[in-house]
Design brief:
- The chain is of the alpha+beta class.
- Helix content is 32%, strand content 21%.
- The protein has 2 domains: 150 residues, Cytidine Deaminase, domain 2 (3-Layer(aba) Sandwich); 53 residues.
- It is built from 7 helices and 10 strands.
- Strand 6 and strand 7 form a beta hairpin.
- The longest helix is centred in the C-terminal third of the chain and has 19 residues.
- The protein is elongated, with a radius of gyration of 28 Å.
- It holds the Pfam family Phage_portal.
- InterPro entries: Phage/GTA_portal, Portal_HK97.
- It comes from Pseudolactococcus piscium.
- This is Phage portal protein.
Length: 234
């Protein structure tokens, strides 16, 4: 949550994805990176290198980082987190011998990066049920985006919140404009005193509001006059 914008809209990582431009950019970049080949290699004694298909990490990175997702989905998820929050996190699961046996994405908005009294980095992750779990550097794969300290990346959405907020406001204005029959708002003027102005307003909107009612001919009675509200130019 980044607070309000100059356009008056509250922009978050989730709400920004409702913008077609943001969604398309994130999808294209995330899918492009996820589709790149990812192999582990080992050096030969005589020089050169070859795929280390027998290495435990090869299957995790190339095929299946965990039992719930493929390598493509895993990398697509991390890239999406990186593009929206500026950071991507994954929990590293190890067996009793210390070997990596699983990688699980963690939500960036639930993660906090800190340093202890010895200046060692540790992570605090808030689980859905509420408590925080402390994780060491060895338990977290952290990919930071652009930032000032090289430790935590800044959210691209937060940096561009005013531009995105203006785009959301323009889209909402356009939608409401066409829902109103592509006509600006107006004022119904009556020479006398109206007994039930609410009923008249509702009747007018029901008859002439909406794009399906555009260009209908209005018949005004009792000396009523319709004056559209417009912005003076010049």
């Amino acid at each position: 949550m980044f607070g309000g914008t100059t356009a008056g809209k509250v922009v978050t990582e989730q709400s920004s994805m409702q913008m077609a431009a943001v969604y398309s950019c994130v999808r294209i970049l995330a899918e492009a990176v996820a589709g790149l080949p990812l192999h582990c290699y080992k050096y030969r004694d005589g020089g050169g290198k070859e795929k280390a298909v027998d290495h435990p990490l090869y299957f995790l990175l190339h095929d299946e980082p965990n039992s719930e997702m493929t390598s493509f989905v895993f990398r697509e998820t991390l890239m999406t987190h990186l593009l929206l929050w500026g950071n991507a996190y994954a929990q590293i699961i190890r067996n009793g011998k210390g070997e990596v046996v699983g990688l699980y994405p963690l939500m960036p908005d639930k993660m906090t990066v800190n340093r202890d009294q010895n200046k060692e980095i540790y992570y605090l992750y808030t689980v859905d049920s509420g408590p925080q779990v402390r994780l060491s550097k060895a338990e977290v794969l952290h990919i930071p985006g652009l930032g000032f300290d090289g430790l935590v990346g800044y959210s691209p959405i937060a940096m561009a919140k005013n531009a995105i907020g203006m785009a959301i406001a323009c889209e909402e204005y356009g939608a409401k404009f066409f829902a109103n029959g592509a006509n600006p708002g107006g004022v119904l003027e009556h020479p006398g005193t109206l007994k039930d102005p609410v009923r008249i307003r509702e009747s007018w909107n029901a008859t002439f509001g909406g794009s399906s009612n555009a260009s209908k001919v209005a018949v005004l009675e009792e000396g009523m006059k319709y004056s559209p509200i417009s912005i003076r130019r010049g």
